[in-house]
Design goal:
Elements lengths: L2 H9 L3 E3 L3 E3 L3 H10 L2 E4 L3 E7 L3 H6 L15 E6 L5 E10 L2 E7 H13 L7 E4 L4 E7 L1 H11 L9 E4 L2 E5 L4 E7 H11 L4 E2 L2 H10 L36 H9 L5 E8 L9 E4 L8 E8 L5 E8 H6 L2 E3 L6 E5 L7
Parallel strand pairs: 3-13
Antiparallel strand pairs: 1-2, 3-9, 4-7, 4-8, 5-6, 6-7, 9-12, 10-11, 11-12, 14-17, 14-19, 15-16, 15-18, 16-17, 18-19
Helix pairs in contact: 1-6, 2-7
Length: 342
């Protein structure tokens, strides 16, 4: 984010807590607004990498889990970047912007992912750049959000993962009636001014809660190199293409899929008291390894407490009686995801 962008948000009532938390002075009220829909949020917890050069598509095709070669200018794609052992270093949203590719991922892993990818460019004609501070990401949700995008940009994407580039920005439709909007800082300020006339501004935590109840995982620094993609349900939201050629980690990921050896999955849970953090352990009441879980994402809940996405052993999830950090810690109440777990 640029200083100009932060100053703009501050002029609209935002409070900024470095490195990546923003609210508008009423976090609890903002959560209630997110629960009822029709909100706009600055996505300060995400960063964007840009890929350009004649070999960019071919290079990324051999690195990422999604079909980069099949990506057109009217659709985005979920995907992940893994180690050779199939462990996720990041997951992301990828889309085309004219002759370049854009990748939105967790801000706290973006620099490390950029550095690692750069190591494998070698003689390929690929340029990888961090698009901050000139590039801004916004979140828009709700039926009023759809109408507001239509007015501000001239159109709004209608189907999941479809995109529209117009009016100074690119809008990608996420699962449900939510959108990620990408724009350069000056254009983002103009878009915000138009969209906020119809939508309630909310902070980072409110948007993270919307991601959690939508079952959308986000690998951050505390959970890097811990999960095979299927453990975070990534293939269930279209983040793995099993028909493309080889890419880093592909052998392990494909073997896991076709041998049916996914014994851990990502679940949605509510914790009525206490605060959960990414990387926190989840254990059964008996302790030991029986619980076998890790919190992937957490955000305050409109009900109080917090809602989490946690990767759990499926057998333990079925048995219930799971606790945060210790056998006598806060209880996890499992709740249904908006999609089925195979």
């Amino acid at each position: 984010m640029t200083t100009g962008w932060l100053e703009f948000l501050a002029s609209r009532g935002a409070r900024v807590s470095p490195p990546s938390t923003i609210d508008f002075g009423d976090p609890e009220g903002e959560l209630r607004s997110a629960q009822s829909g029709n909100v706009i949020a600055p996505l300060a917890h995400l960063a964007t990498l840009g890929f350009s050069g004649v070999d960019a598509v071919e290079f990324l095709q051999g690195q990422l889990s999604c079909d980069v070669q099949g990506l057109d200018s009217s659709h985005g794609a979920h995907g992940c970047y893994c180690t050779p052992q199939g462990r996720m270093l990041a997951n992301f949203l990828l889309w085309r912007d004219e002759d370049e590719l854009r990748m939105a991922l967790a801000a706290d892993v973006a620099a490390a992912v950029q550095k690692r990818l750069q190591m494998f460019v070698l003689r390929s004609k690929v340029k990888i750049v961090a698009l901050a501070p000139d590039f801004v990401l916004l979140g828009v949700a709700g039926a009023a959000g759809t109408r507001a995008l239509q007015q501000a940009m001239g159109a709004a994407p209608k189907e999941s993962m479809s995109l529209v580039s117009a009016g100074g920005g690119t809008a990608i439709r996420l699962l449900g009636e939510r959108f990620l909007v990408a724009a350069r800082s000056e254009d983002a300020q103009a878009l915000w001014g138009q969209l906020a006339k119809a939508l309630v501004p909310v902070g980072t935590a409110a948007w993270q809660w919307l991601d959690i109840i939508a079952g959308m995982p986000l690998v951050t620094s505390p959970t890097q190199d811990q999960f095979i993609p299927q453990m975070t349900n990534l293939e269930l939201i279209g983040g793995i293409n099993f028909r493309k050629g080889c890419y880093t980690g592909q052998e392990i990921i494909a073997r896991t899929q076709y041998r049916g050896t996914v014994k851990r999955r990502m679940y949605l849970a509510h914790v009525a008291c206490g605060e959960a953090r990414a990387g926190d352990q989840v254990v059964g009441s008996g302790g030991g390894e029986s619980g076998g879980g890790i919190v992937l994402n957490s955000a305050p809940s409109p009900e109080g407490g917090c809602d989490v996405l946690a990767v759990l052993q499926s057998a333990s999830a079925g048995a219930g009686d799971l606790h945060l950090r210790a056998p006598d810690g806060p209880l996890l109440e499992l709740r249904p995801l908006p999609y089925g777990i195979v």
